[in-house]
Specification:
Strand order of the largest sheet: 2-3-4-1-5-8-7-6
Distance between the termini: 15 Å
Oligomer: single chain
Length: 112
């Protein structure tokens, strides 16, 4: 299990894209009006306009896991709370978010 994906909510996608392209030294690998993504050094950095449907207000790191439902059960049993249940975001990729005991949002991601 490791963090490979970090999503950042942005208010101006085009302006943010310029900054992240300069920062990462690479062009986006996904570029649409609702999501811009970069794959650099084994990491995926995503820009989400207005925080997307999940209403993100700060960056969210996503831990890649082999069994998202088992990890959700493990984290909630330890005191975390499900913020967003596992859902398919396309291509069989499942994502979910939980909050820790201080309200920090943690992401889980499972690829099929």
């Amino acid at each position: 299990m490791e963090i490979k994906t970090v999503l950042h909510p942005v208010s101006d996608l085009e302006a943010a894209k310029k900054v992240y392209t300069a920062l990462l030294g690479a062009e986006p690998t996904a570029d649409s009006p609702y999501y811009v993504g970069y794959d650099v050094g084994g990491q995926h950095i995503g820009l989400v306009p207005s925080g997307g449907p999940q209403a993100m207000t700060s960056p969210v790191a996503y831990w890649h896991v082999s069994d998202i439902e088992a990890k959700l059960a493990e984290v909630t049993a330890a005191g975390g709370a499900v913020k967003e249940a596992a859902r398919d975001v396309g291509g069989g990729r499942l994502v979910a978010t939980v909050t820790d005991t201080d309200g920090n949002v943690l992401g889980l991601l499972q690829d099929k």
